């Protein structure tokens, strides 16, 4: 079943002959439980696409459907709530709150939504990501790889339908990057998440279940199962 789908998705900046077509009629879908990588060079439109998929920016035209709902039919406040509950984000910059410890950072999105975290589930996520001994540490006491693990745990904490990761290994060395991608894959499988990763790194993309390629704002291949 498709959990995520775009139809004729467009994002233009500027007007007329000088308009930049960051996305120019993007059509693709992602199955529930899939781990997909969207690959493209700098300026290909991949990060713009991720922002559209997550409802962080509104398109010039076309639709994004998440779990059967056209997210851009929602009013801004409704979209914010939907995004917070249904979509988890992992970015290149970890965006951790420096005065909160690891556990507090992880449960923050749940508490911002006025709920209490599922303690047993959060502990399971923490253990899966190898953070059990770091729960009371501040972000400044962690390595880059550990901080990115916390960011992944935070994205998982709300039990979202989809995890969207934008160059999540961009600030990490090659070994740590492979570790983080491996943990994303394991977490997705263990907790039933659909994961879409934006990357320019072909080696990392090969760890996904499917590679989707974007060039000049258009999908040039939707890929089969990725294999090294």
Can you offer a commentary on this structure?
The chain has 228 residues and is α/β, with parallel strands linked by helices. It has one domain: Rossmann fold, CATH 3.40.50.300. Helix content is 33%, strand content 28%. The protein is built from seven helices and ten strands. The chain has helices spanning 46-53, 76-86, 102-112, 119-128, 144-157, 174-191, 202-205; strands at 2-13, 20-31, 35-39, 61-66, 69-70, 87-91, 162-166, 194-199, 210-215, 218-221. The strands form two sheets. Strands 6-7-8-3-9-10 form a six-stranded mixed β-sheet, sandwiched between helices. It has a four-stranded antiparallel β-sheet with strand order 2-1-4-5, with helices on one face. A hairpin with a 2-residue loop joins strand 9 and strand 10 (218-221). The longest helix has 18 residues, at 174-191. It is globular. The two termini are 26 Å apart. The relative contact order is 0.20.
Sum this structure up briefly.
With 228 residues, the chain is an alpha/beta fold. The chain has 7 helices and 10 strands.
The whole-angstrom Rg is 17 Å
Number of strands: 10
CATH architecture: 3-Layer(aba) Sandwich
CATH homology group? P-loop containing nucleotide triphosphate hydrolases
Question: pLDDT under 50 segments (min length 5)?
Answer: none
Provide the succession of SSEs.
Answer: EEEHEEHEHHHEHEHEE
Biggest sheet strand line-up: 6-7-8-3-9-10
Please state the overall shape, judged from the principal axes of the Cα atoms: globular
Q: What distance separates the N and C termini?
A: 26 Å
> How is the main sheet built?
6 strands, mixed
Q: Bin the helical content.
A: 25-40%
């Amino acid at each position: 079943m498709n959990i995520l789908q775009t139809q004729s998705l467009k994002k233009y900046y500027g007007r007329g002959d000088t308009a930049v077509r960051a996305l120019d009629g993007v059509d693709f879908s992602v199955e529930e439980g899939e781990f997909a990588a969207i690959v493209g060079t700098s300026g290909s439109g991949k990060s713009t696409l991720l922002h559209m998929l997550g409802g962080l920016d509104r398109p010039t035209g076309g639709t994004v459907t998440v779990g059967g709902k056209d997210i851009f039919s929602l009013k801004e406040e409704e979209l914010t709530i939907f995004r917070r509950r249904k979509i988890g984000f992992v970015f290149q910059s970890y965006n951790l709150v420096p005065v909160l410890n690891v556990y507090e950072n992880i449960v923050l999105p749940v508490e911002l939504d006025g709920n209490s975290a599922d303690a047993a589930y959060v502990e399971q996520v923490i253990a899966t990501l190898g953070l059990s001994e770091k729960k009371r540490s501040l972000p400044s006491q962690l390595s880059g790889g550990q901080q990115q693990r916390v960011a992944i745990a935070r994205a998982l904490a709300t039990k979202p339908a989809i995890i969207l990761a934008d160059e999540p290994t961009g600030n990490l060395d090659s070994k740590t990057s492979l570790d983080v991608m491996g943990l994303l894959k394991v977490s997705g499988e263990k907790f039933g998440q659909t994961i879409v990763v934006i990357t320019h790194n072909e080696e990392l993309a090969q760890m996904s279940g499917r590679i989707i390629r974007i060039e000049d704002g258009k999908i040039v291949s939707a890929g089969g199962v990725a294999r090294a």
